[in-house]
Write a structure and sequence with these properties.
This protein is α+β, with helices and mostly antiparallel strands. The protein contains 4 helices and 5 strands; from the N terminus they run E-H-H-E-E-E-H-E-H. The radius of gyration is 15 Å and the shape is globular. It holds the Pfam family Acetyltransf_10.
Amino acid sequence: MIRYKVNAPVAVEQFIDVLRRSTLGERRPIDDRECMEGMVNNSNLLVTAWDGDKLVGVARSMTDFHYACYLSDLAVDQDYQRQGIGKQLQILTQQQLGRHCKLILIAAPAANAYYGRIGYTQMPRCWVLDGDQSLKS
């Protein structure tokens, strides 16, 4: 049986491992330990799914709990996908937020259509400035 936890401690190794076992590991700097530690330690909302002592899913967010919540990572172990774990992680994330707080994410390419099916509204105005880029004058 899958157990869900809110803001339970997660070791960096566990986080990296679940990213590797999901398709999200391909798009995260899992070989950069310092970055991964920062990602885990500086998130202020972490909802996790556990099968016994094994971390099988994670929803990692940064939020003010009132206006906006950025769901930065939603990962489910490939062996546990299509069981509703990802959706439950999002439901539990939303339950931690104020009733008017928006849940915002950037979809993985393979999951883009999924979010519309479960109720998200697609927004065409998202912009990204990579860390190695500077604002132009």
